[in-house]
Amino acid sequence: MGSKERIARLKDETRLNILDAALDIVKDEGWQSLSMRKIADKIEYTAPIIYEYFANKEGILLELTRRGYIILAGEVRAAKQLYESPADQLEAMWIAYWNFAFKYKELYRLMYGVDMNCCELKKSMPEAELADDLIYEVIEKIMTVDNPPEDLVCRKFYTFWSIIHGLISINLVNKGRNEEMNQRILKDAIKGIIKYIND
Fold this sequence. Notes:
Layout: H1 3-29, H2 36-43, H3 47-53, H4 57-80, H5 86-103, H6 105-112, H7 130-142, H8 150-172, H9 179-195
């Protein structure tokens, strides 16, 4: 490996270390506690080195948000591939969405503004639409109308999202029910919406 490749690899590793350190700090202390100084201390670098990779804390938040959307899309896509039936795919995809929210709580809170001030990062990030697009496609397959209007598909998507995101949010702020009850509510909601998706 040449020196240019080694330098590039070291820069990539440092960048990833910064992001991982930021996420570790958030897991321990919450998003409001994150600062460039704390990240520098965590990876034992000086703060100016952190600024060589990210202009400010918002740059780090943007990259972590992007990472979250990419992981979410991968998990939704994997869930879809487990089933042939669009209804089963849709249920599995929303359950994957739910599981992502609790497996990656800190990223979910950042991505969707749960229990914190939501930054408007989603609008400028194509990765934010990856999982949504997968779910849209399956909703269209379930609908019995040929070429359903986009606003109808959008309405059905947001019906799903508002219920599932609402249930996740309730549980992330520790006001939910036990896990068995949560799973029953989640599956009832998904199956109910699928049942009436053509209304």
